[in-house]
Amino acid sequence: MQLENHLILEDTLIKEALLKINKIGNPDLLTLFVVDSENKLLGSLTDGDIRRGLINGIDIGNSIKKVYHKDVKYVVDDKSPDYEKMNYLRSEKVKLVPLVNKQNQILKLLDFSVQKVILPIDAVIMAGGLGSRLKPLTDSTPKPLLKVGDKEIIAHNFDRLYQFGVTNQFVTVNYLGEQIVSFCKSYKKEINFNLIQEKEYYGTAGALSLINDFQNDTILLMNSDLLTNIDYEDFYKSFIDKEADIMVASVPYQVSLPYGIFKEENRKVLSFEEKPNYTYYANAGIYLIKKSLLKLVPENEFFNATDLLEIIINSNKKLIHYPIRSYWLDIGKHEDYKKAQNDILHIDFD
What is the spatial distance between Cα 236 and Cα 322, in angstroms, rounded to a whole number? Predict the structure, then answer.
């Protein structure tokens, strides 16, 4: 969506405004936002506003000052998103909302027909692996570009992040990286892609040392070969509420023992449990990290995300895990890929 297609100066004639609305195309987004010469938000204008003005006798040759709404809904760009306001706007079926700075200048438009919220997060998507376990599918195609349903694996992640307003997305590439670079360059213009070329494979977190232009104080690190509809808004809220240094998404992993198990002390049986079930929580490969902690990542070295977790634990910083309550799948093997093709038909991404 081009911002300039939805902006109009307040001294514009009604006829010109109608022509501009007609060019928008998308029937769900037929709204113009009235601004002054400094791009400050003054109001909003729809074809309905113009129609009512004409019915009331206002001439088409008049300026839009006589018909536009000065009581316009907007969201202020802030490090602490106004979740209540955004949820209210969504509930009111408001689809197009200006995001303004503290000077009331429009920065961009939020399309709530696609996006749920705007999270102050930069995402780093690790897409440099070999995908060896999926050969021969990955002989000439990098695993992130294998399709699940009608969309590439990595595109599912791009779009899910975009749904939550995460538009600043870094993608690290290595194996067949030129294909991923080309794919990103032709993908959604609304997403600000930053392509990071690894000279060699730096593990699941080492490439963080190659990035020095993060815009936000919270970094989301994830593997590109995940298929998930995780609620990133709830994930981020939990990260803030728990005052975590790092929060790692987790998935339940159940172990069922086929035998009766003794609970004992010095070989004295204290109790007996028949075929017990145990639930453990496994690392899901999605992390929220305070930007200040990235100084712990060594430069140009192999370094895994689990190495960073070990450092955090050993330094008594706060590492919290977040159980994913929705769908998650690590597409590592052929059976996983087959499962993903079946599951994609039933995953709710709304």
Answer: 10
- What's the pLDDT at 86? 81
Neighbours of 103 (CB within 10 A): 9
**With contact defined as beta carbons under 8 Å apart, do 282 and 251 qualify?**
yes
Contact at 8 Å (CB) between 72 and 97? no
pLDDT recorded at residue 168: 95
What domains lie within the chain, and their CATH numbers? 3-111 (3.10.580.10), 121-343 (3.90.550.10)
Short-list 322, 149, 325, CA closest to 229: 325
CA angle 329, 330, 335 (to 5 degrees): 85
Are the C-beta atoms of 211 and 124 separated by less than 8 Å? Answer: yes
Q: What is the DSSP string of 31-54?
A: EEEEE-TT-BEEEEEEHHHHHHHH
Strand pairing of 151-152 and 147-148? antiparallel
Residue 80 has pLDDT above 80, yes or no: no
**pTM score > 0.70 for this model?**
yes
Residue at token pair 């503290």: 102
